[in-house]
Specification:
Layout lengths: L4 E3 L1 H11 L3 H11 L3 H9 L6 H13 L2 E3 H4 L3 H11 L5 H8 L4 H10 L4 H13 L1 H30 L38 H21 L4 E2 L5 E2 L5 H11 L4 H10 L7
Parallel strand pairs: 1-2
Antiparallel strand pairs: 3-4
């Protein structure tokens, strides 16, 4: 399998958390590092970062997930193997401290962080690795398979989500079912309005005669009161300008001309 990412421990872990989110990856990493899932979530959120044994386990986990962790690669091969011995529980940190002759576990962590072994301890380390090589290989193979299966499943799930859905092909017109028409509420039929009857020519002539007669009477009355639309006397006197207009209309010489013009006017026109 090709390398997923190469960088520092924090850089590789950030890449892992971004590309393999979810409870399954958090649970597996927490199991490998022997911490609570909440601790892993804090690593992901950047609130804290592992130290000591948890840091060694995280580096080995990323190595098994095909990450190339710089801090691990910079160590000599025997020390990388020692980190793996601790990470997969072949030996505990306390067992390594005792067999290498260190006073406390911090010296073991310092060794796996900076390197540097004296010859006496190099011989002890070679003996430790030789005695536990078979168990180390077995544990590494077991964890590698478990990690690869999970990451492959997560990658497959992401691939399924990314595949676009092909639109359904339209059915043949012959086999297609006719669309169901929704029944509309029965609307009551509205009666059509009666067409407006046009005014006939003789009716217009009669209307013109009545109009001229009314204007003549108005002119003869002079300033006398006229009637309002309700039939009551209108106290307002007829203005001089209007009297002149009425006199012009009633003029005997122009009566026929007025009637001819009225006949041409539309039924809704007014003087």
């Amino acid at each position: 399998m090709s390398t997923r990412h190469r960088g520092t421990t924090s850089g590789c872990f950030e890449h892992f958390a971004h590309n393999f989110p979810g409870d399954a990856s958090v649970q597996l990493l927490a199991e490998f590092c022997k911490v609570q899932g909440l601790a892993v979530q804090q690593w992901v959120g950047g609130k804290r970062f592992p130290q000591g044994e948890a840091l060694i386990r995280l580096q080995v986990f990323l190595h098994l997930a095909e990450y190339r962790v710089n801090e691990l690669l910079e160590l000599p091969k025997p020390l990388r193997q020692l980190a793996q011995v601790i990470a997969v529980d072949v030996l505990s940190v306390e067992d390594v401290r005792t067999q290498l002759g260190y006073h406390n576990t911090q010296e073991v962590y310092r060794l796996l962080r900076n390197g540097g072994l004296i010859r006496d301890r190099q011989n002890k380390l070679e003996r430790i690795l030789g005695e536990n090589s078979k168990e180390l290989d077995r544990q590494l193979a077991t964890w590698r398979a478990q990690i690869e299966d999970l990451l492959a499943e997560l990658e497959k799930r992401e691939t399924r989500i990314a595949i676009p859905v092909k639109p359904a092909e339209p059915a043949d017109e012959a086999s297609a079912e006719p669309p169901v028409l929704e029944a509309k509420a029965q609307q009551p039929e509205q009666p059509e309005p009666s067409p407006v009857r046009p005014i006939l020519g003789y009716e217009r002539a009669v209307m013109a005669d009545h109009l001229v007669a009314a204007l003549s009477a108005l002119l003869e009355n002079g300033d006398s009161s006229t009637l309002t639309p309700t039939g009551e006397p209108d106290p307002r006197p007829l203005p001089q300008a209007e009297r002149l207009i009425v006199a012009t209309v009633v003029d005997a010489n122009r009566r026929r001309r007025l009637m001819a013009q009225l006949l041409l006017l539309d039924s809704d026109s007014s003087l």
